[in-house]
Amino acid sequence: MTHFRLAPLALSLFAALAASAHADEVSVAVAANFTAPMQKIAVEFEKDSGHKAVLSFGATGKFYAQINNGAPFGILLAADDTTPAKLAQEGKAVADSRFTYAIGQLVLWSKQAGYVDDKGAVLKTGDYRHIAIANPKLAPYGLAAMETLKNLGLTDQVTPKVVQGENIGQTYQFAASGNAQLGFVALSQVMEDGKLREGSAWIVPSSMHEPIRQDAIILNTAKDSAAAKALMDYLKGDKARAIIKSYGYAF
């Protein structure tokens, strides 16, 4: 009997082809505040699993409406914990797949270095024309910003200066472009590798607003998807969590 032995290169090619044969992809609706970390996680996820995460970014409230209208997302990474719970209650998502993948931190930020002090007193004393805040009806970070202003007793003083972003991504753009001198944004948008990228900021104490628990859930369209299950498991792993933590999130 003749025996054949595959060369190492052929073996690795065979393994890659076998893996790709089982590879899958999943469409993921990602809360705008989680854009940067999720882009990094998706790259590592594809390298490590062979599966692909196709990402869309936006406001959690809008994603909810799109899902109700039949948008074919497989996973929702929300900016809150109420939307995934609601989808599960309505029978549109896999209830036991839901978990908190991150706890967001709100930050008052200015592109100008030294402008925002470490206690947020600039809200009361600063000579600013505009402050960017996400729509509190659609964006949990916007709701947290309004709760913070209420707790500081500054709602009436600050509200006339508010420019409202549709989501936290647009809100950040208002502040980053200088159209608003200040913005209540997600810490993840201005932090990378544990450091503020530019400007000045006040990390709002969590006691100033309700916790921003960000939950993930598998939607019914992906209940049998290997890629969806793999991604949810990956988000709980050490590599993904290290990336998430580097952008200022807690767990």
UniProtKB/TrEMBL annotation:
* Keyword Signal attributed: yes
**Which GO BP terms apply?**
molybdate ion transport
Q: Does the keyword Nucleus apply?
A: no
Give the range the annotation lists for the signal sequence: 1-23
- Keywords attached to this entry: Metal-binding, Molybdenum, Signal
Q: Which domain of life is it from?
A: Bacteria
Q: Which family does it belong to?
A: Belongs to the bacterial solute-binding protein ModA family.
**Under what name is this protein listed?**
Molybdate ABC transporter substrate-binding protein
Question: Gene name, please?
Answer: modA
